[in-house]
Amino acid sequence: MVDVSDKADTARTAIAQSLVELTPAIVAAITDDNLPKGDLYATARIAGIQAATILSDQQTLVTAIVLLVLGIGFAISGGISFRAAATTVNPLKPETASSLVTSGIFKYTRNPMYVGLTIILLAWTTYLAAPFGLVAVIGFKGLTVVAAARNEMPPEMAKP
């Protein structure tokens, strides 16, 4: 793309023109609403409504795909950071950890896998266009916090 932010604003006008030639019989059929395939204007209105509906569906789909890719990126980047530090991913065996990972995605979040899964759930909720799905996302986050407090934190805290 070309950066045009420094250009001065200009007023522009676009003019389009077309010429549609119809026989007198077709003009009469349109004005008398006597076309073989039905009302021309009603068909044009329905086509416009369908085009607007398809656009809103596509916006929802694109938003869901962006969230899905973001969630997968979060989850995978956690594993990559662990591999780069040559340490374990298993929080239940902290004795096998060779170092505390504070680089990569771990600069921003303590557990990118849970953040990634939460974003993936948000993508699914967006795709379904179901606001009630937010209850599932909030419930998932609550369960992950409880599970981490019960299962992961005690072994990590016990390590000297």
Describe the protein.
There is one protein chain. With 160 residues, the protein is mostly helical. It has helices spanning 24-31, 40-84, 112-128, 133-158. Helix 2 (40-84) packs antiparallel against helix 3 (112-128) and helix 3 packs antiparallel against helix 4 (133-158). The longest helix is centred in the middle third of the chain and has 45 residues, at 40-84. The chain is elongated, with a radius of gyration of 29 Å. It starts with 23 loop residues before the first helix and ends with a helix. The mean pLDDT is 80.
Roughly what is the average pLDDT, rounded to an integer? 80
Strand proportion, as a percent range, falls in under 5%
Biggest β-sheet strands, sense, barrel? none
Shape verdict: elongated
Number of helices: 4
Q: How many extended strands? A: 0
Structural class: mainly alpha
Helix and strand succession? HHHH
Instruction: Note poorly predicted spans.
Output: none
| Helical residue percent band | 55-70%
How far apart the termini lie comes to 54 Å
Radius of gyration of CA atoms, rounded to a whole number: 29 Å
